[in-house]
From TrEMBL:
Keywords: Methyltransferase, Transferase. GO terms for biological process: methylation. SUPFAM superfamilies: S-adenosyl-L-methionine-dependent methyltransferases. GO terms for molecular function: methyltransferase activity. This is SAM-dependent methyltransferase. InterPro entries: SAM-dependent_MTases_sf.
Amino acid sequence: MTPTPVRQHLSHAGAVPRVDRGARARDWAEIQERMLVPLYEAVYERLEVDSGTRLLGLGCGTGLALLMAASRGASVTGVDCGACERLALARERLGPAPWGTRACAGARIVEGSPRDAAPAPDEPAYNLVTAFEPIGCAAGDAETLEEQLVAAAPFTEHGTPVVLAGWGPPERCSTASVLRVAAKLADPERGGGGWRPARRDDLEEAAQRCGLRPDGSGRVACPFGYADMDSALRGMLSTGLFDATDQEQVDKELAEALHPHRRADGTVWMPNVFRYLIARTP
């Protein structure tokens, strides 16, 4: 078998590639985001998320994790910066339903920093903070996350659990071989690249730098499964890690990297393990 053609993702030779951010956001919401559902479920089950939970989701993206928490009765607020296309989809998911009711009563989606998501003076503080975007996916993401955690801390109760997430050991993550394409070719100035293999203590070190106290961790199987090669390409490209000046070369090498994970029935399957850390605010 040969890799599926990726002409629909290629730019004209010599042209500056233009990324359709709206299409990428939809691909993230419809294809890629669901790959982390086992992680969300494991965390919510362990922390017994319910109607007493007041959740602040950092880097909430298109809001699937918030929607799952709200389905358990939680009051949810999501905050993100620089991802307006994804936030628009989050507002659709969590906003008014077609029949006039709210899909998630009281849900808030905020563009900006955690300070912009501060509870109103008459509202209780948050008692759960989640940061499900895996550390190590992009250059400088750990530093950005730490800034967000420090900014969010004043709006939480004493001892509030804060959940950080990251990739598991590279030898247990089939997608690592694909992400190396981003590390090698993608352009950090365009928002892509910067991926590196996870280190054992990434999450603990980030928590400690923010003054958080580690209080347990876990590992969750999160296989990346796609109906076909086109879905796999669209899903991986939707992460934003592969944006590059020479997008044609990235797309070519991405298809080649995905090819070993293509099964006889045309589906693409990559077993992965993700790790999460629960830390507590002072």
